[in-house]
Design a protein that fits this description.
The chain has helices at residues 5-36, 43-47, 51-72, 77-113, 131-159, 167-180, 202-224, and strands at 184-185, 194-195. By secondary structure, it is mainly alpha-helical. The chain has a two-stranded antiparallel ribbon with strand order 1-2. Strand 1 and strand 2 form a beta hairpin. The longest helix has 37 residues, at 77-113. The protein is elongated and about 60 Å long.
Length: 234
């Protein structure tokens, strides 16, 4: 199997640029709140509700953009599936590392501002400087959301509108990942929060992340193993 350099490289480069711009925006807002208001909580903690949607989008793009491109250029669906699996497994740690770096940079900023970097949610970590625990939490989140994106995109690519049947399965993967890290999940198409009381621990979280990855890939493969290429203009 060829190493999926392009399949992995393109999302990583895109994510790195998005992260840089996003962090600068969050830092500017944080500084503004500190100067003109009362800064009592971690702004990065609040902002990290957004990147998980990026992980979902990257998962979708693997199927929507890269599957037809790779197949049209002579790769088999099995080769693409293997490279996509490796991409998800490697992208999630990179995704987590960038979020972890954001917490560390924010800690430096808060020290300069003389403000406490207070967390308000339930996490695997009690301090943003507990790097291994921060990394583990967002690794699980990246695996869950990206796997869900791959699964749902594969279903929509194969069945078009009928791919909506995959939504409950994709949401289930997200719910599993978020519950394992003590998440409080709000989705725009649901009227209330999904609150979880699953016991939060690092082994539980990492196990849930692995289950999300394996289950998402296992459900995706039957959808793409013999899927026909679709004309983009059809």
């Amino acid at each position: 199997m060829r190493f999926p350099s392009r399949l992995l490289g393109a999302p990583l480069i895109y994510t790195a640029f998005m992260w840089a711009g996003f962090y600068v925006l969050v830092a500017l807002i944080t500084i503004g709140v500190a100067m003109f208001g009362t800064l009592r909580i971690s702004g990065w903690e609040v902002a990290t509700q957004i990147p998980r949607w990026l992980a979902l989008f990257v998962g979708v793009s693997l199927i929507k953009e890269f599957l037809p491109l790779y197949i049209a250029h002579g790769q088999t669906r099995r080769q693409f599936g293997a490279q996509a699996a490796v991409t998800v497994a490697l992208y999630a740690p990179a995704f987590s590392a960038l979020i972890t770096l954001g917490y560390l940079l924010e800690a430096l900023l808060y020290n300069l501002l003389g403000r406490p970097q207070t967390l308000t949610g339930v996490h695997l970590f009690s301090s943003p400087t507990q790097v291994p625990l921060v990394f583990a939490e967002y690794l699980v989140q990246g695996l869950a959301w990206m796997s869900a994106g791959v699964l749902m995109a594969a279903a929509f690519y194969r069945w078009q509108a009928a791919g909506a049947i995959s939504l409950p399965f994709g949401i289930a993967l997200i719910v599993l990942g978020e519950s394992a890290i003590g998440g409080n999940l709000r989705l725009p198409f649901l009227t209330s929060a999904l609150d979880f009381d699953l016991a939060v621990s690092v082994p539980t979280a990492l196990g849930a992340g692995l289950v999300c990855l394996l289950l998402g890939l296992a459900l995706t493969w039957p959808l793409i193993r013999d899927v026909p290429l679709r004309n983009r203009v059809s």
